[in-house]
Amino acid sequence: MALVRVAVPIPLAHEDTLVYEFPEETPEVGLRVLVPVGPRRVWGTVLGVEPKAPGFRVRKIAGIPEPRLVVTPELLELCRWVSDYYAANLSDVLQAAVPSPGGLTRRAPRAAPEDADAWLQVAPPRREELNEEQRSALTSLEEAIGSREFRAVLLFGVTGSGKTAVYLHAAAEALRSGGQTLILVPEIALSPQTLDSFRRAGFGRVALYHSTLRPNERADVWRAAAAGEVDLVVGTRSAVFLPFRNLRFVVVDEEQDNAYKQDDAPRYHARDVALVRAQRLGAVAVLASATPSLETFARVKAGSCGLLRLPHRIDGRPMPTVRITDLRHRRAVVAAVVAGPGSIASRPVLSGSTSPQSRYLGPALVEAMAKTLERREQAILFLNRRGHSTATTAARSGHSGPRARDAARPICGSGASASRGSRGRSRVSFPWPGSRVWTSMPRGSADRPRRF
User: Which intervals hold domain Helicase ATP-binding (predicted)?
Assistant: First the structure.
C-alpha cells in the first residue's frame, strides 16, 4: 500500500487536496479514483505519492473505475497552467477536464452513423476544386504542419469563402503525417454537421465530444484519443482537454464567439487554452473567423500570429450590401402607410409633421422594409439588447454619459421596474460642450414591436 495525494472538487479550508491510502505500491499519477469525503464519495485525481504519513487517521480510497481513466502528464501540466492563469482550484479544473462516471444525466443527439442520411448532401470540394486563394492558404498550413513547430494562424475569410474546406484538407495533411486533429466549434448544434463534412471527405476514425454526451460515451472518446484510436475529434470547449497521443493540428472555428468562455468555475477561455496547448505540443493552431476578435487582431499585429486571407466568396458569389446610418443627422423619416388591403405605400415625412415618426428608425430602413413587404417578402430586424433598457444620449454628439468613469449614466426605466429617471422622453443637463440636450432612446427589444 501507499499514501497518495488526491485533488478533490470540494471547498476546503486551506488546500484542495487530501491524503488517502492506495491499495497498490506504485500508484499512477493522474489516475481518477473514487474517494470518501465526510459522508459522501466524490471523484478525484491522484497527483502523486505522499512521502510521509500525516498525524491523523488516513482513509482508504473507495474505488478505481475499470477501465481506468488517467490524466496524461502533458494534460495535467496544462490543467495546472489553467489553474494558475485563471486563479481557479486545480481540483475544479480537473473535474471539468476529465469525464466522471455518473457525473452527467443529460443527453444530446449523437453523431449519425456513417450509413445514415448525412447533414450535408454535397461532398466537400476536392483539392483540385479549390480556388487560388484557398490553395494558397492550404499550402501555407501544410508547410506549417510539416515543420513540426508551433504556428498560430488567423484564417480570416468572409462568410462563404470556403474556410472549412481549407482546414479540412490541412487536417488530412496532419493525418498523413501520423498526427491527430482537434476541431473546436462554439455550439453543440454545430458539431454533428461539422463531423459529417469530415466523414464525407474520407476521415474514418472520427468522434464527437461535448458536455451533454452520456458519461460512458465521453469516457470512450477520452480513452480512444489517449490510445491514438481516433484521428479527429469535433467538440465544444471541453474537448480542448482531451488527452491526445499526438495532437498536430488544432482549429478554433468562429474563434470570436463568446461561447468559448466558461461561465462557471473554473472560468477559462477555450480559444486561449487551445493556443497554449498547441504551443506546448509544437502543433499548428488555426483561428478561423469572418469577424475575428480584437485580441486575435492584436496578436497578428504583434507578430505572434500569422494571417491568411480569403477575401472573396467561392464561385464569385456577391457579398451583401451593408449600409450604416447615422441617426443623429437624419432630417426626415419615411412612414409606412397602409394604402389598402395587402398593399403598403411609403412617403417621406418631414420633421415637424404630425405624421408618425421614429427616433431610431432612419428613412433608409423604413423604405427598405416597406419595399420588402410590397414584394410580399419577409424581413428580420436584429437587436443587440433585450427588455426595456433605455439609454440616454446627447442629441447632437451621441455621447451616452458624463466624462467621469465613475459617474452614473442617466437611465430611464419602464413601469414598476424603473429604478431611476422617468418614463418616456427625458431632458437632463450635463456639463458637456455642445451637448446640453439629452434624450432617452429606447433600445430594448420589448419596446420595439409596439413602435413598429
Answer: 144-310
- Contact indicator for 33, 43 with CB cutoff of 8 Å: yes
- 114 lies in some domain: no
Regarding whether 218 and 84 lie in a shared domain, the answer is no
In Å, how far are 50, 88, 328, 347, 348 from 362, measured between CA atoms? 70, 48, 10, 13, 11
Is residue 138 within 8 A of residue 170, CB to CB? The reply is yes
Nearest to 167 by CA among 179, 178, 180, 183: 183
231: left (phi over 0), alpha (psi -120 to 50) or beta: alpha
State whether 148 and 238 are in the same domain: yes
Q: What is the pLDDT of residues 178-236, one digit of tens each?
A: 999 999 999 998 888 899 889 988 898 999 999 888 888 888 999 899 999 999 999 99
Cis amide prior to 67 (ω within 30 degrees): yes
The DSSP bridge partners found for residue 47 are: none
**pLDDT (tens digit, 9 = 90+) per residue, 162-172?**
999 999 999 99
Residue 400 belongs to domain spanning: 382-452
State whether 331 and 247 are in the same domain.
no
Amino acid at the residue 254: E
